[in-house]
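Quick illustration for those who missed Monday's session on complexes.
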Amino acid sequence: MYIRLDKGIYMVGGGAGGPGISNYKDCNVYLVEGEKDAFLIDGGSGLDTGWILQNILETGCDQKKIRYLFLTHAHGDHGGGVKDLKAAMPWITIVASSGEKRLLEQGSEEELGLVAAKKKGAYPKDYVYPHCRVDLTAEDEQCFFAADGKITVVLVPGHSVESALYLLDKGEKRYLFSGDSIYLNGVLSLINCYGSTMEGYRNNIHKLAGRGIDALIPSHYRLIMTDGQKHVDKAIELLSYSSLPPMM
Ligand SMILES: [Zn+2]
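Prediction with zinc ion bound:
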C-alpha cells in the first residue's frame, strides 16, 4: 500500500495515527523519486520494515535508485527501522544531524525517550531500539541534490535534541518534510523526554521564515499541499508570545 501525494512523491509508511499503511508504530515514511535517483524521509519503527519495503516496491520505484535516507530525528518511530532498511539496501547513505547521529548510533533508552514512552504504553514493553550507523552528518543549511530537486537541511532543535527538517525545492514547488517539529496550524510537539526543549524551538524557529513553502508534510497527522508557509508562519508567530503554543 502507498499513497501518491504528487508526481514522484509517495507515502510508503505510516501507522495507526496516520494512514495505517504499515506497522501501527511507524511514523509516516516518504519516498521521493526523480528521473535518475530517489530518497527516503525517515525509517519507521523497525517493527515490520518488510511492509515498508513492500510498499516501496509497489510504487514501481526501483530500490536501486534510492540514494539517501534522510532522518528527521532518532525517536523509535522514525529511526528504529533504519537498520533494516540499510540491510535491505546497503547502497543508501543514511543522513542525520550530529545530535541525532549520536542517539541513532548509541543513544540509551532514556535518551531516546523510550523509558517514558514504554511506561505510557506507546511502545511494546520488549521493544529494543535497533541502533544503526549514520553515514553522513547533515549540517544546518547543507544542500543535497537528488530526485530532480534540491534538498536543504534546516536544523530546528525543540521536539528533539537536533531535529532536522528537509526542504525540497523542485523549481515549481517547495515541499517541507517537517518531521515532528511542526504540524498544521503552527502546532508544535514538545514532549516530556530528554532533548525536548521550548528553548530549542524559540531559538531556531525563525530559520523557517520566508522559505516559500507550498507543501507542509509532517511525520504524523494531517499534511497540506498548498500554502504550507502560512502554517509555518503561524508557528513563528505563536512562539513569539509568552504563553505556550498549541502542542500535539
Ligand atoms: Zn519524535
